[in-house]
Amino acid sequence: MILRLVRGIPGSGKSTWAKKMFNSIILENDMWCMQDDKYNFDAELHGERIKACYGTVELCLDDGMDVVVCNTFVKLEYMEDYIDLAEQFDAELKVYKVIGDFGSVHDVPDEIIQKMKDEWEDFVGEKVIDLTGR
User: Fold this and answer.
1) Are 61 and 85 spatial neighbours (Cβ–Cβ below 8 Å)?
2) pLDDT tens-digit readout, 54-109
3) Burial of 66: CB neighbours in 10 Å, binned 0-12, 13-18, 19+
4) What is the model's pTM?
5) By C-alpha distance, which of 18, 99, 34 is closest to 66?
6) What is the pLDDT of residue 36?
7) Tally of domains within the chain
C-alpha cells in the first residue's frame, strides 16, 4: 500500500500530473469546494474540508487502497498528519514536488501564490517533478 503526497503551488500541474501517472484514488481538499460543478472556496469551511479529505484518505488506507493526495502542502507541518497516517497503516510514503506554471484554475490571486512561494518548505527526499520544460 502506498500513500503519495503530491505538492506544489496552485497551477503547478500537480493534479493533472497525478491523474496521468497513477492508477489510484486521487483526493484533494479542493474536491470539497465544488458546489454545482463550480469551485467555491470558503475560508470559514477550509478547516472542515481539510478534515474531510484527511478522513477519506484514512478510510481508503484502512481498506488497503493506494491513495494520492494532491494539495499545496506549502509548509511541512501541513503534511504531518498524512505522514503519521502512512506510519499508522504501514503504508509506503512517497512525496512529490511538482513545479510548473499553468495558471491557477481556481483563480488564486497572484499575491497569495507569491506568499506560498515565499513560505515554501522543501521535504527531504521528495522527488521533484519539473513540468516547466514539458
Assistant:
1) yes
2) 999 999 999 999 999 998 999 999 999 999 999 999 999 999 999 987 666 556 77
3) middle
4) 0.84
5) 18
6) 61
7) 1
Residues 6+ apart with CB under 8 A from 129: 17, 96, 97, 98, 99
CATH number, residue 60: 3.40.50.300
Assign 51 a pLDDT band (cuts: 50, 70, 90).
confident
C-beta separation of 18 from 131 below 8 A: no
Where are the strands (E) in 40-126, listed by range? 67-70, 92-99
Average per-residue pLDDT for the chain:
85
- Distances from the Cα of 1 to the Cα of 16, 29, 63, 92, 94, angstroms: 22, 21, 10, 6, 11
Residues 26, 32: contact at Cβ < 8 Å?
no
User: Cβ-count burial of 76 within 10 angstroms (0-12 exposed, 13-18 middle, 19+ buried)?
Assistant: middle
Give the domain extent around 72.
2-130
Q: Please name which of 73, 74, 78 lies closest in space to residue 118, comparing C-alpha atoms.
A: 74
